[in-house]
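In the previous chapter we treated chains in isolation. Here, by contrast, the input contains two separate entities that must be folded as one system, with a combined length of 544 residues.
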Amino acid sequence: MAATFFGEVVKAPCRAGTEDEEEEDERKKETPEDREVRRQLARKREVQLLRRQTDTSLEVSLLEKYSCSKFIIAIGGNAVAFLSSFVMNSGVWEEVGCAKLWNEWCRTTDSAHLSPSEAFCVFYHQKCNPSVFLCQCSCYVAEDQQYQWLEKVFGSCPRKNMQITILTCRHVTDYKTSECTGSLPSPFLKALKTQNFRGRVCCSLLEQPNIVHDLPAAVLSYCQVWKIPAVLYLCYTDVMKLDLITVEAFKPILSSRSLKGLVKNIPQSTEILKKLMTANEIQSNIYT
Amino acid sequence: MASRYDRAITVFSPDGHLFQVEYAQEAVKKGSTAVGIRGTNIVVLGVEKKSVAKLQDERTVRKICALDDHVCMAFAVFIIFIGLTADARVVINRARVECQSHKLTVEDPVTVEYITRFIATLKQKYTQSNGRRPFGISALIVGFDDDGIPRLYQTDPSGTYHAWKANAIGRSAKTVREFLEKNYTEEAIANDNEAIKLAIRALLEVVQSGGKNIELAIIRRNQPLKMFSAKEIELQVTEIEREKEDAEKKKSKKTV
């Protein structure tokens, strides 16, 4: 038992096991209805990998079906905008599949009819070099869905001869420092890599305690376990919605080996980015 | 760690943070940038204009507001607020009532410092009450007092207030403040025009697409507030760009 600040007494979780054995027996008696509810929930939260044009599922995992030498994953609105403007506009990319999923973060309760903007992770490969893959993930992948996502994308025995680059954003208040967050020069870039990553990182490494969250953390852990070279570029920003300055903070990555051959016209990409920003600007009156 | 100490405003964290107040300061950063400069005989207020929805009446989107107008407009206090619009409206209403109440009681208009202290005290009360959240606004309060000296004060959601020679609030305030620290000199504010140019230059550091997204107001001693028109701002911006080019030409001549 533990007391909170407000004086309420709550049962604290104990890894040694519950004290009350009677309660355990009660819990073991699961009714068929409970099982059915659990099955339905699992089905609802299933991560499906499919081909959007035909709406058919992919029979095997994405990287088992296609060979991959380079995989760039953008997670979050700003990272997706960066890849859209700088990488996708500099070449011809073909959609090879998408991951469809539903969780409580989705605005709709109807898991059957999900809009592409909120519930899809789209995968592309470059037409002239089909071993280069790109993933644009703007939806939130919940903790219980991350392993499914990894299995569906990487498979149960991934190849080690590919390089993974992950781009994402976090709020600057997540950055562990003794300084006041107001004095930090946000947005700024930090990197975290797996042991097998031998390349050069384009910014300083994330200092201890180097904690990352959600899907980027899941991908990085997966790559570390399977000894795949991977690097995560994390942009700490004070503006979590789509923002020009935050997206431009990813620019140092353009000089990295993984993105070097993919970006052709930077000034044109910057123009495309500006247009994307104005198109997405929601006229909000909440903040003046 | 933060998640256990940030739900209630009245709870300090073990290392002395009031997280709700700090989060309120983050809310201010979501607004546009505003800059205030105190000259010798002038106070300049500049703010980044946010794009207004097509069907919205632009006149109702006002950031620079008068708190108190003396009968002959000799003394006037103006405020510019950045952060949550609704919170700003509430604070301004209370401040305006206080200005009139002070005039009725004491028969003198408020000083800039008095009304700043009132607003700051109000903001502080909301950082200590249970069930209320802090105001998510920072304000720049300017005006001339009885003695004819220009004043510039800044308040923030924690309820602190300070007098400043020049300051910026809102998004990218840090960048603008650094620019002001480098460029605010006695020569820079020697005359009114130079102070105006300094404010515009400071805003141009962070405002995208230049002069058309800037709103500027000046208050001179014994004169009413003057809002600059878009044309006047463009003229200033052109002059600033010309000066920049001349300075660069001089530099390149020296190196050659």
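The two ends of chain A are 46 Å apart (CA to CA). The first helix of chain A runs from residue 21 to 28. Compare these points with the single-chain example from earlier in the chapter.
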